[in-house]
Amino acid sequence: MVTRVGMEVSIAAAEAIKQANVDVVAAYPITPQTHIVEHLAEVVNNGELDAEFIPVESEHSAMSVCTGSSAAGARSFTCTASQGLALMSEIVYITSSLRLPILMLLANRTLSSPLSIWNDHSDVMSVRDCGWIQVFVENGQEVYDHVFIGYRVAEDHNCLLPFMVNLDGFVLTHVIEPVELLDQEIVDRYLPPYQPLYTLHPDHPVTMGAFAMPALYTETKKAQAEALTDAMPTILKGWQEFGELTGRYYHPVEQYQTEDAKIVLVTQGSLGETASIAIDTLREKGEAVGLVKIRLWRPFPFEEFREAVAGAELVVVMDRAISYGGPGGPLASEIRSALYAEEKHPRVVNFIAGIAGRDVSPEDFMQMIRQARERPGEWYEIYDVRE
Amino acid sequence: MAKPEHEITWKELNVGCVIDEPGNAASYRTGDWRSQRPVYNKDRCIRCGTCYIFCPDMAIKILDDGYIEHDLYYCKGCGICAEECPTEAIAMVDEEE
After folding, report:
1. Three-class SS of residue A232?
2. Is the pTM of this model over 0.95?
3. Percent of chain A, pLDDT > 90?
4. Could A215 and B6 be called an inter-chain contact, meaning their C-beta atoms sit closer than 8 Å?
């Protein structure tokens, strides 16, 4: 039984948090995440959700509170964007090291300066190596679904890692979309109550976040690195079982028209839907083009990606963040690494586009493909710059 | 007691490096940090216990007769006991001597 309603995506996200029956919400309002937190304040205040709503004084405190509450065994939630993520980043790294299954929605917004409230992926890329599971979603339904999937995967004792869901600011957070809401009974079947492995409790004292000397530190980091890589089967299981209950199946790498594609476009987040229109248009003209959308950013799905572009001659990667002084955008760097050891690999061309809310239309994607095809070599450039 | 840290493999660590054995810091030999070691002259000692009170690592034991003994497993060689001793019954000497 599902109910299909028109709903602002932020409200749908907050409703999912309510249905996930979180115990603690600690968040500081920042555009474009505000509506999620506002709605959660309402549902807690109205008694619809039995949770502690902690209106902290900063994002640093938001993540600190969630880290503490998760350590005490509470299902904990926060969400932020841009500067808020930058401010909390000190604790973001600690949460994953402590293996605490917090869920965070990141309403992607560019980092200052210049000051801007609009959408790109420079915020998440600044914490790329923070050790969280990081997923990109494309529409409101995927946001709603990934609240349940996120907690289910994060809290699995084979995983026990924090889970970050990236949703594009405004483009997703502030639009009204049709969303299929799940019956509570289905949510409860999919997402059992959180059973922590360790908790802070005076009856069974433990130490979390202890000091490690050089003689042991390398081993702690190896264990953490393996934990994130080894989370892959748990993530796949979480998606599979969600699919069996709802009919909506998710994959680390989503493919569109890639089967016989000689040119493959690669995107992350909501622009995947726009890109698919460009693919349709080019297909109508008989061009062998396809689209790959990287849903799972960490752990990076190397195998799945290589399979998705097998047979392609040209891969056009669109990044939405700049790695200043680096070899291109962060996504293209990963993709070039994924393909480097392949005997025969496609040419990879990288565009950085859609920076801080600059529109990227289907025509822009077609233009990128044209330029990549015409100009030989493996290069990158910032797209759509006035010279 | 926990294994010495240089023998622990990454697979043996608890999830999140949680320490679930209370008090296992006691097995950590902070004496390894020492560059100077206290040398005790019992003849000068007046058994006032000042060194025992000041030692930040509880590395001084008061014996039954009131005299003291340094526990070099934990003593970091900070020299506070020597500094505070009213009769200069404790002297710090370099470890290599």
Report:
1. helix
2. no
3. 99
4. yes
